[in-house]
From TrEMBL:
This is Phosphate-binding protein. Keywords: Cell membrane, Lipoprotein, Membrane, Palmitate, Phosphate transport, Signal, Transport. Residues 1-21 form the signal peptide. Residues 50-295 form the PBP domain. Belongs to the PstS family. Part of the ABC transporter complex PstSACB involved in phosphate import. Involved in the system for phosphate transport across the cytoplasmic membrane. Pfam families: PBP_like_2 (PF12849). Residues 31-45 have a biased composition (Polar residues). InterPro entries: PBP_domain, Phos-bd, Phosphate_ABC_transporter. It is found in: Cell membrane. Coiled coil: none annotated. It comes from the Bacteria.
């Protein structure tokens, strides 16, 4: 498996990527039977897996994207005749496409909402929820910020809630700079936005001066450039940029593999999901094969890109749920 943390540090993700390629022949083969040799080469490359052809489409959370797009790239080596497309329009945007029947799977950084489930039922779309990994939603500042090390949940709420005032660092601590705080946050279609709004702001309005973006790389770049900036996004984006960003501990607990998996990093630890269209899984061999590959490799890829793998029994349960759809 590639060094995905290194790859992400260079450039985490584009807004979407299409991965998949046509099969190639073994140039070193002396056989004159090109078709037979190509099939054997593909079989060897895929680890004796059956050759699958087709297309699979997904969309959704930019937080989940490092895991899923890494899996897509690895899968292209195993099944080069399957083209998998993954977009990153945010959890909410992904569910909109999923409801419309435009995608085979939808990545989400929060559980599906009741109204989204109701819309899927109305549209006649049956689906299965699969957990992929754990994330610790990370609050970060620039490395140039030398005053913030730890914040409480109440501090976060005071900072991020819209109350009609301009927010300054000195509002939290008179020894901190008398400078306005510059906010960066995921866009309103993001499951990360929804999660933060629910567990920190308790569904009150987010500060109106915040720069919002569905692209977490935009948030990273904005925070890197401003010592007065603060923002939040998935743990993997912090890990990939920790040379230029500083993570803030919450109530004395810093996000890391141990605190995220144990839930000690509360309330910002959360599971990451993908939701798959049952009809696509049963009627499209490529969709089924890709989802099986995803569940078999999600734990390793999660760790590779900076998230936390689930216990193996959770992946086994997902695979059993998938098998039951055949």
């Amino acid at each position: 498996m590639r060094n995905w943390k290194f790859a992400m540090a260079s450039t985490i993700l584009g807004s979407a990527m299409i991965l998949g390629a046509c099969g190639s022949t073994d140039e070193n083969s002396e056989s004159t039977d090109t078709g037979t040799e190509t099939q054997e080469t593909s079989s060897d490359t895929a680890g004796e897996e059956a050759v699958v052809e087709g297309t699979v489409s997904g969309d959704g959370s930019s937080t989940v994207a490092p895991i899923m797009e890494g899996i897509v790239e690895e899968y292209a080596g195993a099944q080069p005749d399957v083209q998998v497309t993954v977009g990153t329009s945010g959890t909410g945007g992904g569910f909109e496409k999923f409801i419309q029947g435009e995608t085979d799977f939808s990545n989400a950084s929060r559980p599906i909402k009741e109204e989204e489930a109701a819309s899927l039922e109305e549209a006649g779309v049956e689906y299965t929820e699969f957990q992929l990994a754990f994330d610790g939603l990370s609050v970060v500042v620039s490395q140039e910020n030398d005053w913030v090390e730890d914040l409480t949940v109440e501090d976060l709420k005071k900072l991020w809630i819209e109350d009609g005032t301009s927010k300054k660092w000195s509002d939290l601590n008179p020894e901190w700079p008398d400078e306005e705080v510059v906010f960066y946050a995921p866009g309103t279609d993001s499951g990360t936005f929804d999660y933060f709004n629910e567990v920190i702001l308790e569904d009150e309005d987010l500060v109106s001066s915040a720069t919002l973006s569905e692209d977490d790389n935009t948030l990273v770049q904005g925070i890197q450039a401003d010592p007065n900036a603060i923002g939040f996004f998935g743990y993997a984006y912090y890990v990939a940029n920790q040379d230029t960003l500083k993570v803030v501990s919450i109530d004395g607990v810093e996000p890391n593999n141990d605190t995220i998996e144990s839930g000690e990093y509360s309330p910002l630890s959360r599971p990451l999901f993908t939701y798959a269209n049952n009809a696509a899984l049963t009627e499209n061999e490529a969709a089924y094969d890709f989802m099986k590959y995803a569940l078999e490799n999600a734990g390793a890829m999660a760790e590779a890109v900076g998230y936390v793998a689930l216990p193996q029994e959770d992946y086994d349960k997902g695979l059993a749920d998938l098998e039951a759809l055949k």
